[in-house]
Amino acid sequence: MKNLLFLIAGLLIIRFASAQTFKVPPFQKFKLKNGLTVYLMEQHEVPLINVSAVFDAGAVQDGTRYGLANMTAEALLFGTAKYTKAQLEEKAEYVGATVDTYAGKEVAKLAASFAVKDQDLLFDIIQDVLTKPTFDKAEFDKYKGRQLLQLAQQKESPQSVVSSYFNQFVFAGHPYANPITGTPGAVSAVTAADVRQFYGQNYTTDRAAIAVVGDFNTTEMKKRITSLFGNWKTATATSPRLTDPAITFDKSRVLLVNKDDARETTFFIGGKGITRNNPDFIPVTVVNTILGGRFTSWLNDALRVNSGLTYGANSRFGTYRNSGTFAISTFTKVSTTTQAIDIALQVLDSLHRTGIDEKTLSSAKNYVKASFPPNYESAGALSNLLTDMFSLGFDESFINNFQKNVDGLTVARTRQIIDQYFPKNNLQFVLIGKADTIRDQVKKYGTLTEKEIKQEGF
């Protein structure tokens, strides 16, 4: 036991020390003649290569065809000029490689990981997937059927959809309100021809980047990437850059989504957040760690540990390129809905009223520093970081100055951070639960609007 304790202590010291010295490893950045931005970072610890490619092709480009960006990203793997969908899957699986595509709110990505010895095959696959997808109609139609079934199933799990309702409520009228996976009506109408058209309009090299991280020689990899993608000709991006959403609330509002068979109420409480490149991102993260960002947070203590009203409560900042959201979230029995909401509001009020003391701040700073390096230690995480830097508008100083920004946070500065970034007035409430039971109780929180969870969309 004594030896085990020494081992644990040693590991904690090593982990904390790594937080003190962690920097973004050196990388090379250049642009091909077609506008594609390329990042190369050598990492020789293990014989692996990770690739991340990003395109300005997320759900914000859907228009009213909700889910189109997500379906296009998924359909990249439904066959290429050289490989069928089955061949893509078989060849990657045979060598233990992974190739995934997906879309988020703002961007679409490809992520791949493979052994150095298999790089000829995998780079050939990646090139074909990105530059020559066929969007096979038969495969797409099968996928669409599965997607519609999944959308129907999601509505049975309020925790799976509450964030979509919240985003729609907060960003109403702005593309940030678009649900990533779409709605049944919109998805039903999307065809293979639609995704082919979306691909042509939005997978453009002038708004794209590819990052390669792993066991390679930079000079040789630069030649390879230039050979693979240098002659790739795409249309010039025509979609206008997003405008900043005007998120100003002059009153508190409540969206009550009725689910007749609900035994619990799932809720979000919040409002406007921050962008990902906000210079105060790290101080906000530290303060939010105290409020609801870890298991020992104030919200979790109040709602789970002390009152037993839920299995877990948290607060989070959803950050985008042009805006963001702040939300407190949890779930509780229908009968304790207002009790849980009131406690959550009391905790938020306490943050504003009494602030944070030195001991609490020190604990949060140590927690954030200890948990930070593992997020960026692997080659896959680093490749994703590089494309995030490209798409979200921040640079390596976010990590290189991380230690300084955390250590420099004072109690006095936390007061400014709380006042500036943590909403207190005119809060926005989204609740999914049994409306007939809780309607009259939740009116006190703000102007009430109701929806049925079985309704189309969010």
Structural category: alpha+beta
User: Main sheet: which strands, in order across?
Assistant: 1-2-6-3-5-4
CA-CA gap between termini: 54 Å
**Residues in helix, %:** 40-55%
| Share in β-strands | 15-25%
Number of helices: 18
The major sheet is characterized as:
6 strands, mixed
| Radius of gyration of CA atoms, rounded to a whole number | 24 Å
Note down, in words, how this protein is organized.
By secondary structure, the chain is α+β, with helices and mostly antiparallel strands. 45% of the residues lie in helices and 18% in strands. It has 18 helices and twelve strands. The strands form two sheets. It has a six-stranded mixed beta sheet, with helices on both faces. Strands 9-10-8-11-7-12 form a six-stranded mixed beta sheet, sandwiched between helices. Strand 9 and strand 10 form a beta hairpin. The protein is globular, with a radius of gyration of 24 Å. The protein starts with a helix and ends in a 6-residue tail after the last strand.
